[in-house]
Design brief:
Elements lengths: L5 E7 L6 H10 L6 E7 L5 H9 L9 E5 L8 H14 L4 E5 L6 H9 L9 H8 L7 E11 L3 H5 L4 E4 L2 E4 H10 L3 E5 L6 H14 L4 E4 L18 H5 L3 H7 L11 E8 L5 H9 L5 E8 L7 E8 L2 E9 L6 H10 L3 H4 L9 E8 L3 H9 L5 H4 L21 H4 L8 E2 L5
Parallel strand pairs: 1-4, 1-5, 2-3, 2-4, 5-8, 8-9
Antiparallel strand pairs: 6-7, 10-14, 11-12, 11-14, 12-13, 13-15
Length: 424
């Protein structure tokens, strides 16, 4: 079906990374290719759309340029996005469509919006229309997801405490940057002329660790060959949503030795719970050398529910990760064993599947020191016999969640997560 429909490229990146500059270059160098453009801006005035119109011969009057303003296409304007692209591709045969998302948009929900109805046999178009009022797209397909990264500001942004306001929704700059990097087909490392080769190599090594699947292309002033990001055929939703470096590391854990540029990773596993007060203290002073950490953990006193830790730069979040299988009713537990026979291999006679599994990715990390700090947060033998309910627990409380499979636990979605620790 994709070969008979119009390819769509989604261009993401934080504010100032160079998305509009890249888009204008692609429009100027597109040759005979007939491109349509949709530009999203959070403000009432779509400044980026004006810049595109001024810097190219593309025009809103000719219905080649669509503006979506006063909202973000990854959340409140998802229906408008479908409507706009549907109208573009229904009324005219463009060679491709390029969507420039706002700087606070996460690419994953945008991709979900654009892929509804394509190669998904479980989607009921009638039900989708009744719920959203929008017809699923028929004339185009998501072809390539691109994230533009500012090489000059990347490392600083990852360590930033800056909070962006996405129409009332607070987003940490470092966390948003990680979300954009971890879900893409192409990483455009822009502004390479502003940094030296050593810095470029360090940034590239970090990007490769965060998203091993993506192709990294160095650019200056957004100068990239249009064929590199338009009609590439690279997008695969299943692969894109499961290709983040932290997820691969959890699936095939190994402790990397000190590599060139100092970007390394390891997996921390434990079958005893964390002491809630000591673990909270650690998160309050989490090592700055850690760029990314994610996984589930067992907190003493929370024997019903696994918790998920999500560290991205200076942003630290905790969310419910589903009920432990050991906490399920007997019949449901049997069903889980039938569905996931590997549970039997790691099952503990007393505590079942409860435990901790975290991947830690960083630059110039002292693995031994971080492991030791995590180990000291675990309950001691004496504390294992104590009253866990008496421990001081500063972590957020969550409503009892439905049980989650391992796939649901490791979902790239962030619903229900709360900021904690140094992010406060």
């Amino acid at each position: 079906m994709a070969g008979e429909t119009i390819p769509v490229t989604v261009l993401s990146g934080t504010l100032g990374a160079g998305k509009t500059t890249t888009l204008n270059h692609v429009l100027r160098e597109s040759g005979d290719r007939d491109l349509a453009v949709l530009v999203n801006d959070m403000g009432e005035v779509n400044v980026d759309a004006d810049l595109v119109a001024e810097s190219s011969d593309i025009s809103a009057d000719d219905e080649e340029l669509i503006e979506l303003s006063n909202g973000c296409i990854c959340c409140e304007l998802r229906g408008d996005l479908l409507d706009a692209i549907g109208g573009l591709t229904r009324d005219r045969e463009f060679d491709a469509v390029v969507v420039e998302s706002t700087g606070v948009a996460e690419p994953l929900p945008v991709a979900q919006t654009l892929t509804l109805g394509f190669d998904q046999s479980d989607l009921d178009p009638t039900e989708f229309y009744e719920e959203t009022g929008v017809e699923p797209l028929e004339n185009c397909h998501l072809d390539t997801t691109v994230t533009v990264v500012d090489a000059h500001q990347f490392m600083e942004a990852m360590q930033s405490d800056e909070i962006l306001d996405d129409d009332g929704t607070k987003k940490h700059l470092g966390d948003l940057l990680v979300e954009q990097v971890e879900f893409c087909d192409i990483l455009l490392l822009n502004k390479c002329d502003l940094v030296d080769e050593e810095t470029l190599a360090e940034v590239e090594a970090t990007l490769e660790t965060l998203q091993p699947r993506a192709e990294i292309v160095r650019t200056t002033h957004g100068e990239v060959a249009p064929d590199s990001i338009v009609d590439t055929g690279r997008f695969d939703f299943e692969e894109a949503s499961r290709s983040a470096g932290w997820m691969r590391e959890l699936q095939e854990p190994h402790e990397s030795a000190e590599e060139e540029h100092g970007v390394t990773s390891f997996v921390f596993e434990a079958r005893r719970p964390f002491h809630p007060e000591r673990f909270a203290d650690l998160l309050d002073a989490f090592p700055e050398t850690v760029v990314r950490s994610k996984g589930h953990f067992w907190l003493a006193g929370r024997e019903e529910m696994a918790l998920m830790l999500n560290v991205a730069g200076r942003s630290i979040r905790v969310a419910p990760a589903g009920r432990w299988v050991a906490a399920l009713p007997a019949e449901e537990r049997v069903e889980q064993f039938e569905t996931h026979p590997e549970l039997a291999e790691e099952w503990d006679d007393e505590w079942g599947d409860r435990g901790t599994r975290l991947v830690v990715i960083g630059t110039e990390m002292d693995h031994e020191s971080i492991r030791d700090r995590l180990e000291r947060c675990l309950l001691t033998a004496e504390e294992m016999e104590a009253d866990w309910e008496a421990f001081d627990d500063r972590f957020p409380t969550f409503e009892a969640a439905e049980e989650a499979t391992e796939d649901e636990t490791e979902s790239p979605e962030n619903d229900g997560q709360e900021e904690i620790g140094i992010a406060d």
